[in-house]
Amino acid sequence: LLYVTYDAGVTWNLVNDLLGAGVNKIQMYNSNFGYAVCESGLFLRTLDGGNTWDIMNTYGKNRTVSLNDIVITGTGGTGIIVGDNGLIIGFSGFGATLSAPVISANWPTYSVTKQLKSITSSGGTFYIVGQNDVSLTEHTGLILRSTDGISWTEIPASAYNNSDQNKVRYLDNLTAVSVGDDGNMMITSNS
Questions:
Q1: Do residues 33 and 77 make contact, with C-beta atoms less than 8 angstroms apart?
Q2: Are 25 and 37 in contact (CB under 8 A)?
């Protein structure tokens, strides 16, 4: 279900005619343009402040796994989506077209066992967090860092006690916080 408010949250109205998939994140670029990432690979955009939503074509890109988070990185509505199976997709132009998945030499093909849960960016530095080998009973957390959104470096698990990481956000231009399982919370100020 998706709801929209026009009075700062006093009342909420159900948006009808959406497909049956759970919405994982909504990210607005401004008061009119925004995106939603969903289960089953659905990528939605709104051009009217959330009154109506259009489905963007991710199926043609063989993307049917859960899309978990989105960050808008620049002007014109460009950004990055992260999801299950190690999925990283760059997009531009308010979602009119999706670029190819952003996969570099530092992100090998075995990434299908990784669940990418959250992404954040500030000043050209990006962090992605999630789970490292989701196929194992005892998996570990995962933190990736990039200065361009294309090449990603894995932060050693010992830096964050191997805990699964669930969300990451910048507090300001230099300080990022990641939260994970078992009450794990980490902060970095050397972004």
A1: yes
A2: yes
Q: Decide if 120 contacts 176 (C-beta within 8 A).
A: yes
Phi-psi region of 31 (alpha: psi -120 to 50; beta: other; left: phi over 0): alpha
Phi, psi of 123, rounded to the nearest 5 degrees: 60, 30
Q: Tell me the pTM.
A: 0.80
Q: How far apart are CA 138 and CA 132, in angstroms?
A: 10
Per-residue pLDDT of the chain (191 residues; tens, 9 = 90+): 677 788 888 888 777 666 667 889 999 888 888 888 988 888 888 888 888 888 776 655 556 788 899 998 876 667 888 888 888 887 776 655 554 443 333 333 335 678 899 999 998 899 999 887 766 666 678 888 988 888 888 887 666 666 788 899 999 888 888 888 877 888 888 65
Q: What does the block give as tokens for 144?
A: 């990736």
